[in-house]
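MOLECULE: protein
FOLLOWS: sequence and fold
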Amino acid sequence: MTSVLLTGASGYAGAAIRVALERAGMSVITAGRRPGDDLPLDLLSPMHMPTLPSGIDACVHAAAAHEILCRNDTVAAFTANVTATRALVRACDTAGIGQIVYLSTFHVFGAPRGDLTEDAVPVPGNDYGLTHYLAEQTLSLLKGRATVLRPANLFGTPAVWDTFDRWTLAPFDFARTAIREGRIRLQSDGSPIRNYVSLERLKAAVLAALSGELPPVTHVAGRPWSMHELAMLSADVARELTGRATTVSLGTVVPNEAPYTFRSLHGASEADDDGATMRAFVRAVMTRLMETAQ
């Protein structure tokens, strides 16, 4: 049985990855700050990186400081995303762990423009993208034993609701305000385009990386959505569930963004199903909100 060390197992992406690993018959050892984790790991204290036990075959590093922490605390952002990743790489090397899969992000490209494949040069536009890009560079020290995954914006029903805290992500924010307030307020005029890929596609990419099927850097791409299109879909689902109209208000007009395509040279983007998967996800989130006090 393959033994995998997983960081960030209580996070949005990490919890989904844990489910995928266990369903694939792998033994999962979690490292994190929660009482239920198998090993203690605090990204803000990389000097206390635990000694990893022998017998672990691979590591999936899905823990990181998210975009809000990176914006509010630069020192914490670099400590968690860069220094701690370097310390983890060293710990894995010392323990003889032969493979690391690192969960990076599309946001290493900053303000996107043009054809963004794995050959495009990242130009981070903020500390969130920069720290992930610097963390990617530390993986090069493993000389071919690491795979970097760069997913687009993620969507999908959380594997574990109890630890989910990413309500600021647009699809979740739209769902919550639609159910709570009967309206969705965009900060922009709705024209910005964002690429969204499902958790299911990300899980498949992680498993493929662990199987050695992917090159050192792989994009995990989905379908482009305008913020207005996503808001209108959310409003329509809310109307179906509640029987009342949900208004969508637009914010500040933004300068025209440069057109871009986010894709991979190593596989097709997630298939466009006319929004059916996104609609089912939004419906599941709204149903959860109507059943709970979140």
About this structure: The CA atoms of residues 53 and 95 lie 7 Å apart. The chain has eight helices and 14 strands. Residues 3-155+196-222 form a domain with the Rossmann fold fold (CATH 3.40.50.720). The longest strand covers residues 27-32.
